[in-house]
Amino acid sequence: MKAVIIRECGDIGVFETADVEKPTAGDGEVVIEVKATSVNPVDWKMRNGFGEFLIGSFPAILHPDCAGIVSEVGPGVSGFEVGDDVYSFATGLMGKPGALAEYMAADARMVAKKPSSLSFEEAATLPLVWTTASFALLERTKIAPGSKLLIQGGTGGVGFVAIQLAAARLNVDVYATCGTVEKCKIAEELGAKKAFNYKTASPEDMLAEATGGKGFDVVFNTVGEVAIDSSVAVCGFGSKIIDINGTFPTPPNAFQFQQMSLLSVFAGHPITHGVNQEKVGAFLRDLSALVDEGKFKPLLDDKSFTFASIGEAHDYQENCRPTGKVAVAATW
C-alpha cells in the first residue's frame, strides 16, 4: 500500500511516498481504510525533531487523527463491522504507524463510529483535540458548578473544542482569549460568554470584566509558553492552570504565593503508555452523540490539503496560525 513516511526528522522535505506492507487486524484491532487525517502541533513537532522521542523508530508513518472505513475486524472485537464509518485517536506514536497511509491498524477501544452528519475530513479534525479537552476538563479536573473558566486560545485546535465541551458538559461560565476581533466573535458563537482580544485586553481588564477582580477558577492554557504568564496573572487564589504543552508557570513566586496548582495533560498517554484506551473510545462516542444532536460543530480552517501536499499542510499549521483545524484528505 502507499504511505507517506519519514526516515529522519527535519524540515518538510523529509516526507516521501513509499510502498509499505498493508496492516492486518490483530487481537482487539480493526483496520481502517483511511479517508482523512488532520494536522496537530504534535505532528510537526515530531517531524521537525522537537518531539522525536514520540516517534519510536524509523521509517515512521505519522498522524494519530484518522477518519475512514473499517476494512477488517480482528479477533475479540465487537461493535464494529466491515463498512462502518469510523474515526479514531489510536496510533501514530511510539512506532505505531499512523494515518498517513492507505490503511491503518487501530486498537478498537480507541475507535468510534463517525458522526453521521460529518464528512470524513470534518471528523478527522476532532479525535486528538476532543480527547485532549476531555481528559483535561472532565477526567483530570474537578470543576465546581458556577466556576469561571478561561480558555487561552479560543479558536485554536483544542480551544474551540474546549469551549463547546464546557458549554455542553460543565455548568460553568466559559471565557476565552483570541488574537483578532473576528476570532473573538467565532469563540462567542461557539459558546464563550465573552472572548477577549489578548492584543488589546490586559489581564487586569479580563479580571475586572469577567470576575470582578477575583480571578478565574480554572485557566486552560492551550497555546503554550506565550500565554503562561498571563494565565498566572488572571488566576484567583487557589485556582488551577491546565497546560497541554509542558510549560511551567513563571514567575514562581506569583504562582506559589496564590497557592495555585498546575495540571499538565498529554492526551497521547493511552498510546504511549498503554493505559486508559477505553476512555478514548468513550470520549469519541460522547462526541458523536453531541454532534448528531446539534450540540457541537467542527471548526475547520479555510485552507485544506491532501496527502500529496502534506508538507505544505505542516508548514501552514506551524507558521500561519490557522483558525480551528487543518484537514488533510487521503488523496494522492
Give an overview in words.
The strands form three sheets. Strands 3, 4, 5, 6, 7, 14 and 15 form a seven-stranded mixed beta sheet that branches. The chain has a six-stranded parallel beta sheet with strand order 10-9-8-11-12-13, with helices on both faces. It has helices spanning 41-48, 120-124, 127-139, 159-169, 181-190, 203-211, 228-233, 252-257, 269-272, 277-292, 310-319, and strands at residues 2-5, 16-19, 29-39, 65-73, 85-89, 103-107, 111-113, 148-152, 173-178, 194-197, 216-221, 235-243, 261-264, 305-306, 326-329. The protein contains eleven helices and 15 strands. The longest helix has 16 residues, at 277-292. The protein is α/β, with parallel strands linked by helices and 332 residues long.
Total helices: the number is: 11
Order of helices and strands: EEEHEEEEHHEHEHEHEHEHEHHEHE
> Which shape, going by the Cα principal axes?
globular
| Terminal CA distance | 12 Å
Q: What are the low-pLDDT stretches, counting only 5+ consecutive residues below 50?
A: none
Helix content: 25-40%
Task: Give the beta-strand count.
Answer: 15
Indicate the mean pLDDT. Answer: 95
Largest sheet: 7 strands, mixed
**Structural category:** alpha/beta
